[in-house]
Amino acid sequence: MTVASHPMPDAPNSRRYRARVGAEKQAHLHWEAAQYELSWACQTFDGPHMRVRDPAGDYGVELHTFFRTHRAVPERAHHYVKVVSVRAWCVTEVAMIETHVGGRLEMTTSVPAGAYVVENPDGERYAMPADEFFSRYELDPEPDPGP
């Protein structure tokens, strides 16, 4: 088992992905503390965050991260699309990762072989099963500047 730290062993094999074209998600400001049971981990928030709903389910995103990485869909209230590319890689053996946001530990999870680790441009890392990953992301057609 590997423990994710910078750099993670599989990171050199990462590729750039973007949100699937047309992959909108609903999001609302959520003021209270909340816990989300994801298929890959349990996510906790102490206070204000964005509660996001997409076809794979509900999850939370830290406010600043959300508004740096998503844009509103003008004709649809509370609908957003992710507008930044991410780096991602499929893990080849079980790994543990920690998701840190703004200096706060959001979640720790065991990532099974075959799942994907996703890294936002700000370095936030999270994991998801391959089927959920490919329902949200596709290869970015822009030239890859590397990790």
For this entry, give a set of tags.
five-stranded antiparallel β-sheet, disordered N terminus, 147 residues, mainly beta
Structure description:
This protein is mainly β. The protein has one domain. About 10% of the residues lie in helices and about 50% in strands. The strands form four sheets. Strands 14-13-10-2-15 form a five-stranded antiparallel sheet. Strands 7-6-3-9-8 form a five-stranded antiparallel sheet. It has a three-stranded mixed sheet with strand order 1-11-12, with no helix packed on it. A hairpin with a 2-residue loop joins strand 6 and strand 7. The longest helix is centred in the middle third of the chain and has 7 residues. The chain is globular, with a radius of gyration of 15 Å. The N terminus is likely disordered.
